[in-house]
Predict the 3D structure of the following.
Amino acid sequence: MILLKDRNLSKLEFYNTALDIRLQVTSIFLNQLCVEDIEHKTQEYTPATEIVKSHQKWVVTTIREAVMQQLVELINNITDAYSIYPTTINEWEVRRDYQTAAIGNCEKLLQHFQFALELFNENPYNLFTGKRVNVDKLLPYVEKICNEIQYLKGWRKAGNKIRADIEKKKN
């Protein structure tokens, strides 16, 4: 038995965590931004309520698409970086660029979450009456994304040894 303090992260922890984030955010977070759940201040139909409803659907759909795009790009950037085992400085730089892009995807996801919280919970225009995003439900995802950023930075930093080896062979 290995003590918890003596355990190291799995070699692919950054990849497994990214897949887990994608799966969970897709299935849970995006369900909270469900277009059909949008409430109106009034139940009577007027042209104005139809305009508000269509604007609400557009905003929710835009947020959903932006989050999904970042999740797809996160996995793609990790996959592209992992598929390169650098033997030259140029390959090392390309791999590092993909790793940096994956970190950027995580940061963008955090920004989308922040925007959704502000839009639904602190919206002075009261566009989404009756619809709120539960902050407590988002916190585990924010924590996972922050962990993912640290895993990716650690993976990127570990690549410095590969660069040193490449430079040593070159000289």
